[in-house]
């Protein structure tokens, strides 16, 4: 039984019971030297194959009463916490700016949607991520494409910033850091990594969380709250 990404989102949205209300419409904010908000949500461009993930993050942050600002500007302004939902950036210059912010003390959550790219684009993305962030990406795994996927219900085991289990969202990218630590595993595969860079921290998610926020997944929201509170 094949379950499409859109089909999964439809089921997730219909199951929502968490009351994630009050999500404002998106709008680009002009880049400023430093934000008043503690958290910056970088809205993905039209090329992102999972752009609705940003809606999930906005809903979860609002429900958690975490102050944040949205931006679609480049380069991204500095903030203590910066979240890149459904990211597929292949621009080395832009990612180099992100690395500079991490080195200056930012905590960056980079949720990858690169598993939805074609082989050529994914290969380029993989080389850029390794060059800029020192992370080795491996070919995506598609865990919802088999006939018994519903019976298996693959879960990601997170070990940081909280210990929890969150269901995988159909596709995941195994990732290993040159130095740092693996913070989540999926059926024995490392799918999230945390790496200290300068004064800050990069967290790379190979399994998207944004769609789970749309369904009010309590464990996913708990993970995001813990990430935003982590030092």
Describe the protein's topology.
Layout: H1 5-14, E1 39-42, H2 53-63, E2 68-71, E3 81-87, H3 92-103, E4 107-112, H4 119-133, E5 135-137, E6 141-142, H5 149-152, E7 155-158, E8 164-167, E9 171-172, E10 175-177, E11 181-186, E12 189-197, E13 200-205, H6 210-214, H7 218-229
Parallel strand pairs: 1-2, 1-3, 3-4, 4-13
Antiparallel strand pairs: 5-10, 6-9, 7-8, 7-11, 11-12, 12-13
Q: Low-confidence segments, ≥5 residues, pLDDT <50?
A: 1-36
Q: Order of helices and strands, N to C?
A: HEHEEHEHEEHEEEEEEEHH
Please give the share of residues in helix.
25-40%
Gross morphology? globular
Strand order of the largest sheet: 2-1-3-4-13-12-11-7-8
Described by strand count, sense and barrel closure, the largest sheet is: 9 strands, mixed
**Distance between the amino and carboxyl termini:** 43 Å
| Domain count | 1
CATH-defined superfamily: Class I glutamine amidotransferase (GATase) domain
Q: Name the CATH architecture.
A: 3-Layer(aba) Sandwich
| Overall SS class | alpha/beta
Report mean pLDDT, rounded to a whole number.
82
Q: Which fold name fills CATH's third level, the topology? A: Rossmann fold
What proportion of the residues form beta strands (DSSP E)? 25-35%
Q: What is the CA-based Rg, rounded?
A: 16 Å
CATH class identity = Alpha Beta
- Helical run tally: 7
- Extended strand count: 13
């Amino acid at each position: 039984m094949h379950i499409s990404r859109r089909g999964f989102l439809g089921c997730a949205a219909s199951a929502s019971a968490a009351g994630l209300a009050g999500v404002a419409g998106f709008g680009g904010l002009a880049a400023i030297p430093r934000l008043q908000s503690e958290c910056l949500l970088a809205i993905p461009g039209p090329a992102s194959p999972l752009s609705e993930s940003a809606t999930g993050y906005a809903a979860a942050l609002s429900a958690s009463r975490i102050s944040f600002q949205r931006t679609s500007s480049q380069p991204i302004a500095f903030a203590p916490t910066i979240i890149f939902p459904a990211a597929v950036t292949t621009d080395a210059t832009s990612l180099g700016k992100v690395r500079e912010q991490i080195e200056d003390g930012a905590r960056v959550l980079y949720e990858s949607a690169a598993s939805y790219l074609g082989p050529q684009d994914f290969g380029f993305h993989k080389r850029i991520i390794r060059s800029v962030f020192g992370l080795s990406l491996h070919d995506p795994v598609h865990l919802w494409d088999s006939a018994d996927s519903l019976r298996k219900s693959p879960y990601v085991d997170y070990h940081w910033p909280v210990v929890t289990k969150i269901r995988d969202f159909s596709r995941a990218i195994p990732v290993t850091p040159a130095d740092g630590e693996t913070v989540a595993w999926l059926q024995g595969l490392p799918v999230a990594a945390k790496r200290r860079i300068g004064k800050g921290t990069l967290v790379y998610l190979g399994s998207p969380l944004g769609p789970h926020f749309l369904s009010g997944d309590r464990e996913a929201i708990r993970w995001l709250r813990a990430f935003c509170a982590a030092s």
